[in-house]
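Question (not urgent): is this output format expected?
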Amino acid sequence: MNPKKDLVGIEKLTAPEICQYLDLADNFLEVLARPIPIVPALRGKTILTLFFEASTRTQISFSIAAKRLSADIVNFSQTASSVKKGETLLDTARNIEAMKVDGVVIRHSAPGSALFLGQRLEAFVVNAGDGAHEHPTQALLDFMTMRQHFKSFDKLRVLIIGDITHSRVARSNIFGLRTLGARVAICAPPTLIPLEIDRLGVEVFYDLDGIIGEYDVVMALRIQLERQQAGLFPSVREYRACYGLTAERLRRMKPRSIIMHPGPTNRGVEIDPEVADSTRSVILEQVKNGVALRMAVLFIHAGGKIE
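Got this back:
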């Protein structure tokens, strides 16, 4: 299967394309388990991480993934760049590409920024989050984690709880899970659910306690206060009481169900510490899988070779 030049979102991917990333990522898990977890697959390639928004896990994960593939990695800092002097995104990227960068991993507050760059650069572009639009590699690592526990997406029931309106993770997960055959539901206060969300083929609920026992995967999302206007819910305390993953709600879940969270977690808000640290939580598995998955993404789009 010939990959597209860029990975800008999940919405346009087919099920075989999604599985190509997941299958290769499973192979890279074996590489990461070696005493020396490095392969020369991208030796001579240079990858730029172009992050205009704060990130810890995603940027570090991409950097480690590139190093494990023997690529050179350059980390961009907006605060120390000419962007602070008025340089545009496109000019920044073109100047960097003139220095013979092979690929760009971008995070930006503007929806469509990754697509914008991908249409204008010869280097491949990977979207690491564009505003509240999509976050494809997070969704792919989530699918990878789910598949490790349930093997098949057919009839898998996934519940996403929280700030759906502002969540690029929710959108990418909904697009991909529906493509793979899973059933997806969302649960949140009405003020945190986008208008016409049902057009994406999801079920919409407002009462978490009435449905939490019906799902195989329960994913909590962070309340993104930095993207919200005031007054979308009365208080953090009330949000936790109605939608937080508490020990009591954990006991109501299916015996084999798993708990996921894309991070960073607000402990005591959308998820309590004893739930985040429980044996049902796969949050750290998601982090581990993120390196292997991003190795797969870089390998595919950089034209990697196994020597």
